[in-house]
Specification:
It catalyses: S-ubiquitinyl-[E2 ubiquitin-conjugating enzyme]-L-cysteine + [acceptor protein]-L-lysine = [E2 ubiquitin-conjugating enzyme]-L-cysteine + N(6)-ubiquitinyl-[acceptor protein]-L-lysine. One of its GO terms (molecular function) is ubiquitin protein ligase activity. Its EC number is 2.3.2.26. Helix 9 runs parallel beside helix 11 and helix 12 crosses helix 14. It is globular, with a radius of gyration of 32 Å. By secondary structure, it is of the alpha/beta class. Helix content is about 45%, strand content about 5%. The chain contains 30 helices and 12 strands. The strands form 4 sheets. The protein has a 6-stranded mixed β-sheet with strand order 7-8-10-9-11-12, with helices on one face. The protein has a two-stranded parallel ribbon with strand order 1-2. A two-stranded antiparallel ribbon has the order 3-4. It starts with 9 loop residues before the first helix and ends in a 5-residue tail after the last strand.
Length: about 775
């Protein structure tokens, strides 16, 4: 049967009626190839349309016996996915600023969207309850007679109207709010839980019904019943099988093409799902994207070029789940569970360049949806972007020298920092200020009066010593909060905030040069650092003024946050019992000063009616206004090094991981990733070493890692990114181990027993050789005693 020419099916006619933003002739998304001809769903859908019209059935009607039989035969051969869609159409362009919309519109839309919505049709009465359905299933399993269950599934999934009739709590109730989908979730769960245990013909009948539903001829905007049907269908567990991916893809395309107001409702309905029910469709979507990118068999799915809209559709629907997770009062699942690690194996720099070059157009890029990119991918993007900027800076310096016919000094390729240990902080500040034009070059540190070449170890030591000095309580720049075990900015006023800029620059250099710092800022600090993620063109524009909540204050000053929480919940007379005014008192340099939280605040009492405003102003003053100049300097210092579009991809938690690394140690993972030189992994010395190290308490493991690498933090990519090496050194067995922190290398004498390893690595001092062989050897001592 020729399926190349046929009357427009409901899916295509529906596309013709979409708003311009979703019905564009712009270049298509993922495939980036030429635009495909007008769409075809193949002979199967054409046959379906003709038979349905011939039968005089409406969209809500069931299948005739002949049509059901035809579809059963067709479906069994087409669910492999390769015959059902031969000439796919490009997905209508996904909105180019979808990333900003996910961050802004979900929060800024009013509680109820005011636009008028079409009324829902009258639904046929359906009276089956969850209990009755479960009883039907039990009888069918015991007797083998599935007729009643088969009829239920066949009828229920035949159309959107039937789906609503079966699962809506009140058949003709409106339920037009974001707070209540009106769906009987318990019944939906029971039906889906039982579906995969039913005979194959029943499962196929459900898929036929979904096809029938998706072919509906849409006229005008979607009703709330349509949204409910999409909400129910996206939870179908059958989409775990690649044989259903063609149908799944068309469902996802229709959901992706809904209006923003419809998406707003779906997001708030999705966040009401239980954690398990929420996670299941998320995992199916991630698997769908992975399988589409890297199918197990070449012919398992239609050619990627002919269905380039699959991945953009699935990614956008996944974005709705991510938005639901974000707006939920407490995250339903960790944000890291939205990562698709398969994307670590694609050309993500090409995705990044596409996003940079076509960010405001309709070209799809995974960077439009940063929640799906793992921190490993984002770190790699930032590193490669940094390397390109480093090369560009070095090239400009060389070209400038050559054009002036000056002698080329290879030091031009580096950010060379020369400091004295005795004046470490002042020298570092002077050097970074004087060489601020070179901040994007490769960092190289020299300690004055000490021979040596920095291959990475001296840089790590410089960061370590500088961080310790800056964050020392005696220095006064930061206050250590004992209750929350973090540092926060001191609010003292001064004429020069250059030292705060130094700390920001230091953090930027650490990210830029892939160095993990032992810094303990609250998560809110990193949110401020991304507010905004790129430096404003107006130098006087405020930066770092992130909206602060009681939860943010809890991270920093938990005792104060608890007190303000009690004020908000107090049932008595707030004004008489607390006797508070709209002002706050702070000690600065030994002097207590008062600050009004609003004009005339010292004369405005806090009452039961205005206490929320008081608490919000109090929090904003502590976390924003009182430290605005300090943080602005810190912000500009960080962005002077890390000014990159890649920062727009990051969450605050991810910035923290890039700056500080991962604090959790997994020595078993380090053992698996370790490289060996002079030893084999099964030799006695190596086996004894790992037996001893794995038995160490956490504190000793951190000290060993610090001894070997110069840091006790793990990079974002995990232990494998350390490139940790164990080398053999031919010396007597009573010698101590030696480390090369530049190369994350530890050199072991040929110890023969665990006792020998313990004696030299546990009960004595560890020697660190900071410099490579052939250069002056400097030895330091690190205590590793335990009590």
């Amino acid at each position: 049967m020729d399926g190349e020419h046929y009357a427009l099916s409901g899916v295509e006619r529906e596309r013709e009626r979409l708003p311009p933003i979703y019905n564009s002739s712009a270049p298509a998304a993922f495939g980036r190839g030429a635009k495909q001809p007008f769409p075809s769903l193949g002979s199967f859908i054409s046959t379906l349309s003709q038979r349905r019209e011939a039968g005089g059935r409406g969209v809500a009607g069931g299948m005739t016996g002949t049509l059901s039989g035809t579809l059963s035969g067709t479906l069994s051969g087409t669910l492999s996915g390769t015959q059902w869609l031969r000439h796919g159409r490009e997905l209508p362009p996904i909105c180019s600023d979808v990333r900003q919309k996910h961050r802004l519109s979900i929060d800024t839309l009013p509680p109820e969207v005011k636009a008028p919505f079409p009324s829902d049709p009258i639904l046929p009465p359906r009276t089956k309850t969850t209990k009755e359905f479960q009883e039907d299933m039990e009888r069918a399993v015991q007797s083998g007679d599935w007729r009643e269950v088969r009829e239920f599934y066949l009828t229920t999934f035949d159309s959107f109207i039937e789906i609503n009739a079966a699962f809506k709590r009140e058949a003709n109730g409106s339920f037009n709010t974001i707070d209540d989908s009106g769906v009987n979730a318990k019944f939906v769960n029971a039906v889906y839980d039982a579906l995969l245990s039913t005979p194959q013909d029943i499962q196929k009948s459900v898929l036929k019904g979904i096809i029938n539903s998706l072919l509906r001829e849409w006229k005008g905007p979607r009703t709330k019943d349509d949204l409910r049907a999409y909400f129910i269908l996206v939870q179908n567990p059958q989409y775990s099988s690649t044989s259903t991916y063609v149908i799944y893809a068309h469902l996802l395309r229709q959901i992706a093409a809904l209006s923003e107001a419809d998406h707003h409702f779906l997001v708030h309905w999705l966040k009401k799902l239980s954690a398990r029910r929420f996670r299941q469709p998320v995992e199916r979507l991630l698997q769908f994207i992975s399988t589409r990118l890297f199918p197990a068999e070449p012919d398992e799915l239609p050619p990627l070029a002919k269905c380039s809209w699959w991945i953009p559709s699935a990614t956008k629907v996944l974005g709705l789940f991510n938005a639901a997770n974000s707006v939920s009062s407490a995250p339903i699942m960790p944000f890291t569970d939205f990562y698709n690690i398969t994307l670590e194996h694609i050309d993500f720099m090409e995705e990044y360049r596409t996003w940079q070059n076509y960010g405001n157009s309709n070209r799809f890029s995974f960077c439009q949806f940063p929640f799906i990119l793992s921190t490993v991918v984002k770190k790699a993007i930032i590193q490669k972007d940094s390397e390109q900027q480093m090369i560009s800076q070095a090239r400009q310096s060389l070209v400038s020298k050559v054009s002036r016919r000056q002698r080329v000094d290879m030091n031009l390729l580096f950010l060379n920092i020369k400091v004295r240990r005795a004046q470490l902080l002042s020298d570092s500040l002077d050097e970074l200020t004087r060489k601020r034009c070179d901040l994007k070059k490769k960092l190289r540190v020299t300690f004055v009066g000490e021979a040596g070449l920095d291959m990475g170890g001296l840089t790590k030591e410089w960061f370590l010593l500088l961080v310790r000095q800056i964050f020392h309580t005696d220095y006064g720049m930061f206050t250590y909060m004992r209750d929350s075990r973090c540092h926060w900015f001191s609010s003292w006023k001064c004429d020069n905030y250059s030292e705060f800029q130094l700390v920001g620059t230091l953090m930027g250099l650490a990210v830029y040069n892939s160095i993990a710092l032992d810094i303990h800022f609250p998560l809110y600090c990193y949110r401020k650092l991304l507010t905004p993620p790129t430096v404003p063109c107006d130098q006087n524009a405020p930066v770092g003024m992130a909206t602060a909540t009681l939860d943010d204050l809890q991270q920093i000053m938990p005792e104060l946050a608890h007190g303000l929480g009690e004020l908000l919940s107090y049932e008595g007379n707030v004004e008489e019992d607390f006797y508070l005014m709209f002002q706050v008192f702070q000690e600065e340099m030994g002097v207590v000063k008062s600050h009004n939280l609003k004009p005339g605040g010292d004369k405005i009492p806090v009452t039961k009616h205005n206490r929320k405003e008081y608490v919000q102003l109090y929090i904003d003053f502590l976390l924003n206004k009182s430290i605005c100049k300090q943080f602005a300097a810190f912000y500009h210092g960080f962005h002077s090094v890390c000014a990159s579009d890649a920062l727009m991809l990051l969450r605050p938690e991810e910035v923290e991981m890039l700056v500080c690394g991962i604090p959790e140690l997994d020595m078993s993972a380090l053992q698996k990733a370790a490289q060996y030189e002079g030893y084999g992994k099964t030799e006695t010395t190596v086996r004894c070493f790992w037996d001893v190290v794995l038995a160490f308490p956490l504190e000793l493991q951190k000290k060993l890692l610090h001894f070997a690498t110069g840091s006790d933090r793990v990079p974002v990519g995990g232990m494998a990114d350390l490139n940790f090496k164990i080398s053999k050194i031919d010396v007597p067995t009573d010698w101590l181990p030696i480390s090369h922190t530049c190369f994350n290398q530890i050199c072991l004498p040929p110890y023969r027993t665990q006792e020998g390893v313990k004696a030299e690595t546990h009960h004595r001092h560890l020697q660190r050789r900071r410099l490579w062989p052939g250069v002056t050897r400097l030895h330091t001592h690190t205590h590793t005693h335990t009590h």
